[in-house]
Design goal:
8 helices; WASH_strumpellin; mainly alpha
């Protein structure tokens, strides 16, 4: 049976994974062009206005302290409501993107583990690396994850990701989020700093 035959579960699973990876990369490109200025450190007219409502991961260490400060100030509370109304839908799309990257690597790792454990009776990693289609798809799936990580770091910097995740957690509540720990680990600020080359 050919690797990409409709009846080949292993081939279909890997093909779906690669297809999903390509869709995630496309969504990453789409969304990264629409990062609201309020989450960036660059000058934005809304940034000073909402400055006291945009937090990085330090918020997660003591959320009660941050929320108490907001709740004790009527003006800040009103501004918080406006902030959530303005940005919650877009921030949710970003969070779902981050979550889909996290799920993607989990599914890739599960696929490899299933191959090793013999779940796909006729297939092994060695067998896939001999098959032309299997070889391409297995390496493409891993390559796509690398592309996701690179683009995530390059187009949506760590501080921006942290602020968006905290905003999403504040809007939804941490208890309502299933995969939040993995998303936090994935999106935590790294030491990578992208510098534009001089023109």
């Amino acid at each position: 049976m050919e690797f990409l035959d409709p009846g080949n579960i292993c081939g279909r699973t890997l093909l779906r994974l690669v297809s999903r990876g390509s869709a995630i990369v496309a969504e990453l490109f789409r969304l990264s062009d629409h990062v609201p200025g309020v989450f960036k450190d660059k000058i934005d007219p809304q940034r000073p206005r909402f400055k006291e409502l945009v937090f990085d991961f330090t918020y997660l260490k003591m959320p009660e302290k941050f929320e108490a400060r907001i709740n004790s100030d009527e003006e800040l509370l009103e501004l918080d409501h406006e902030f959530r109304e303005s940005y919650s839908a877009l921030v949710e799309r970003f969070y779902l993107l981050f979550e889909s990257i996290s799920k993607y690597v989990d599914d890739y790792n599960k696929f490899v583990e299933d191959l090793k454990s013999g779940f796909y009776i006729e297939h092994s990693i060695e067998g896939l690396l001999v098959d032309r289609d299997g070889q391409q798809l297995l390496s493409e799936a891993l390559y796509l994850y690398g592309v996701m990580l690179f683009l995530l770091e390059r187009r949506i910097g760590g501080p921006v990701r942290e602020k968006m995740i905290v905003c999403y957690i504040r809007c939804k509540g941490e208890g309502a989020l299933v995969n939040v720990e993995n998303v936090i680990k994935l999106c935590k600020t790294t030491l990578y700093v992208h510098k534009q080359p001089p023109h």
